[in-house]
Write a structure and sequence with these properties.
Layout lengths: L1 H8 L1 E2 L2 E2 L4 H26 L5 H30 L9 H14 L4 H14 L6
Antiparallel strand pairs: 1-2
Length: about 130
């Protein structure tokens, strides 16, 4: 919401940058990543009562999706805000830092991707 509001206010060539199709596509990609992360969060929540191996796999899958989404959305937010997106005075830079920290918490995306990959290799050829 903050990025869309900024894009509606910021003008270049006499028009709001929100009218530029390429930037609108970036915002749509950000929304898509957000919805994918939300769906995987719900999936992991539903698996909390499952047996340990299944629960751990679901949590790792969710963490991979969340990590990718946090990194993508925060980086795109900084890009779409331009120079002000990295200043300490602007809330966007704080969101970027917090999302980067969260992506690294409880095992980073690469760690959990390795967990998912190992489980897939363990069950190769088996529908599990």
């Amino acid at each position: 919401a903050m990025t869309v509001e900024y894009m509606n206010q910021r003008k270049q060539f006499g028009v709001p940058i929100a009218t530029f199709q390429a930037l609108r596509h970036r915002v749509a990609d950000m929304k898509m990543q957000l919805e994918l992360a939300r769906s995987m969060s719900y999936y992991a929540t539903l698996k909390l009562g499952a047996p340990e191996a299944e629960r751990r796999q679901a949590l790792s899958r969710a963490k991979v999706q969340l990590g990718q989404a946090m990194r993508f959305v925060s980086q795109q937010g900084v890009q779409l805000h331009g120079g002000i997106g990295v200043t300490d005075e602007y809330a966007g830079s704080h969101y970027f830092k917090k999302l980067t920290q969260l992506e690294m918490s409880f095992g980073d995306t690469l760690h959990h991707l390795g967990e998912v990959s190992a489980r897939m290799q363990d069950t190769a050829g088996v529908f599990a």
